[in-house]
Structure formats: C-alpha cells, structure tokens
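Pasting as-is:
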Amino acid sequence: MAIAKAERLMNLALCLLGTRRPLSKRELRGSIEAYMEAGSDDSFNRMFERDKDDLRELGLVIETVENLEGETGYLARRDSNRLPPITLDAEEAAALGLAAKVWQQARLAGAASGALQKLRAAGMPEAEDSYDAQHSALEPRIPVHETAFEPLMLACRDRRPVVFDYRKATAARPETRQVEPWTLECWRGHWYLAGWDRDRGAERVFRLSRITGKVRSRAGAFTAPVPDVVTVRETVESWAGETATRSARIRLRAGSGYPLRARARSVREGADGWDELEIPYGHGLDAWLVEFGPDVVVLEPADLRADVVDRLRAVAKG
C-alpha cells in the first residue's frame, strides 16, 4: 500500500511539473493509472485531494487556476519549485537550527525538521555541538493550541481563500466569514490572522481562538492584492489602544484584569475591593474592556463608557 501511494504521488508530481498549462481533475484522472482504477467519482476526488495535500506538505508549490469556462486546473511551475543555491556559514546554520526548535511543541515541528533536512542536503553545514550546549538552558517555544492554525497556515502559503465561523468578543453567536488569508502572527500569547474579508470588502484581523468549527478551503484566486508587508501586530496594537495618545479611567475589581494592569499608566488601590486605573485609550478599547465583563467599570471618557454599555447590552440581548 505504501509503495502504491508513493508511486501515485510521484506520477501526480510529474504530471503537474511537466505541464505547460493547468490540468483539470478530469485530465489528471485520465493520465494516472491509479486514478483510472479509483472507481466512483467520489473515491477519486477524495484520493486526489489527499494526494494534493500530501504533495503540498512535502513542499511542492501547486497553483490552482480557473480557466475561462470556470473549470479548475492545477500545475506546479518549475521556477516555483526549484531551490536556489544555498550558501550559509556555521553561525547562520546554527541560527536556523535554533529557529526550528521554536516549533518543537507546535504543529509545525515536522515542517521545520523537513526544511532543515532539505537545507542540509543542499549543502548547509551542521550546527556545532558547542552552540547547542551553550543555549540549551534557554530555548524558545511558540505554543499552538488552536486547531485552525494548521489549515490557515497552509492557506496562507498556498494563497487559498477560506471560510470559517467566527465569534466576535461582543457577539453571542458566531458569524460565517469569507477571508483571503495573508499571514499569521503571534502577539502576547495569541495567534492572529490578517487577511481580506470578502463580505466587508476590507482588511480584517481575526483571533484564532475565536474561530469555531472547521476552516474550509475554497477554490479560486484572490480578489484583492496581497500587501508586500502585513504587520498584524501593529494592527492589533492599534485596535487594543496600544498606540493611543488619550487616556481612560476605569475601576477594576481587585485581583482581576491583569492584562489591563500591565498596560496601566497608573494604579490607585482602593479600600472597597476596587482599584482605579489610568490606561491608554484608542480605537477598539471598548471591545477589549467588554471581555472583562463585570470586573470593569468605565469612569471616563463618556464616549468610551457609552460604547462599552452599548456592547454589553447587545451581548445581553443575544
């Protein structure tokens, strides 16, 4: 069974690499013997999708193109799948090895290990043992617990639109979002996706922990241009008031709201079980304060207090 699958993957890769134009599923089925023997169309479609995903996992860049008749075709351009000459010194190789260790506890561990193996096969020198021993006491880790991370990471890499259900902080129920994913970034222990929201016709940032259900891929090309540099961190910071020039005064229940305390410009402890904080105020702060529920009371400014009250009422109504 393993030999048969390996042969099928090799044949599919050769077909995609050898074509000058995108090949449809129908054409690929007629060119590969294993697909001819697949039986029903459903069996073939499942087998083809698994094989395509396996090849992408192995590093083959497969493009999805829609022709004038609306039929989807596939190809793997040679210039996109050719590794350029690698020239790294021992220190650069050691830095890459340390970077790969970041993902050992995440779902990218296999991809990071495979990338190092390919680079070493292309001539990258091995990292010296002294370097590993020197840095073994402190090793970086990036935790990835969200099930949406892997499909979104692959969608960003392959430039594939996705659909998922997303629950905003102030919403009682999730909404379906159609997104063209650009990049993923970790900020203060949480993963965020930046992309183009097709329904809203604008750039949006989504927190992965608020994605419910499965992330579904969609065929077709992106409708909006992908920026050269997408900085999710700056966008999230601006939404959370990190870059604000104004200040807000809030009351915070003692022993709660540690993220707010960490950002506070001043904290005055109260004797009634509540503390008074001065925090930066910018766009999106009202949505963040709502997440702390009854532990936060906004004192001023009045417009922020009104926005928080409106959001709480919307949540209460469901």
